[in-house]
Amino acid sequence: MPTIESPTATEAPPSGTGLRERKKRETATAIEMAAVDLVARLGLADVTVEAISAQAGVTSRTFFNYYAGKEDAVLGHSRMFPPPSLQRLEFRPGVAILDAVIDALRDEFAAFDFGTKEFQAKRRAILVAHPNLLVSSFQALDGIEVDFALQIERLLGDEGVVPAAERSREAWALVMLVGGVLRLAMHSWSQEEQSGHPLSDHVDIARATILAAARRE
Predict the structure, then answer these.
(1) Which of 26, 56, 100, 162 is such that its CA lies 20 to 30 A from the CA of 41?
(2) pLDDT of 43 above 50
(3) % of the chain residues with pLDDT over 70
(4) pLDDT above 50 for 9
(5) d(CA 37, CA 40)
(6) Torsion 151-174-143-32 (CA) sign
């Protein structure tokens, strides 16, 4: 879910591009929050794009600029903000590929606001009540994982340590490990009583926890 941020007193005034980007994120956030709230209260079948748009304070045309439909709005799959990608990540000698990938995703997640604990709980309840949305969510995740595996395999090739015949399996192993780190981070973030720590902090803690547990084995 896109972040709504306010510049601090010490920051330089945002550029025109920065303001437009912030406005887009604010609009996407408003639509997403309205969609989740309405579907949680009324059910998916009884919620229309027009109702979501009205609650978000946008036109239906603007809604469709951001989301393909009400289902995507509930899931947070916005046309304006593509899913995380590793295509720009380059191999850096001396930096473990696992660390490079997790650092890149942590930094990307820093640009997203996943909402309050209550908002996430409301969204999870919607997914449980509407299995078709859960399937769509998993399908989107599958596509992201396939892209991650291809990009990690590319990085393994640049590193030149893992034999070519083993790179695909190694890449998928790293994808699963990264996924475990992110899931643990989301879990600890959702269980935190006070939301003073951003998700990016939980990613670092989850990485250290999982790697320490693996070493003990």
Answers:
(1) 26
(2) yes
(3) 87
(4) no
(5) 5
(6) negative
Residue type present at position 207: R
59 phi, psi to nearest 5 deg: -85, 160
- Kindly write down the DSSP assignment for every residue of 56-112, as one continuous string: HT--HHHHHHH-SSHHHHHHT--TTSPPP--TT----TTS-HHHHHHHHHHHHHTTB
- Average pLDDT estimate for 42-57: 96
The pTM is what? 0.70
Buried b (16+ CB within 10 A) or exposed e, 121-141: ebbeebbeebeebeebbeeee
Please choose, from the candidates 133, 153, 157, the residue with its C-alpha nearest in 3D space to the C-alpha of residue 145.
Answer: 153
Closest CA to 203 of 113, 140, 121, 110: 110
pLDDT of the residue at 79: 87
CB contact at 8 A, 22 and 14: yes
Q: Which domains does the chain have, with CATH numbers?
A: 1-81 (1.10.10.60), 83-217 (1.10.357.10)
- The pLDDT score that the predictor gives to residue 2 is 36
**155 contact partners, CB below 8 Å, separation of at least 6:** 86, 89, 90, 91, 97, 100, 101
pLDDT at 196 over 70: no
Phi, psi angles (nearest 5°) of residue 195: -90, 40
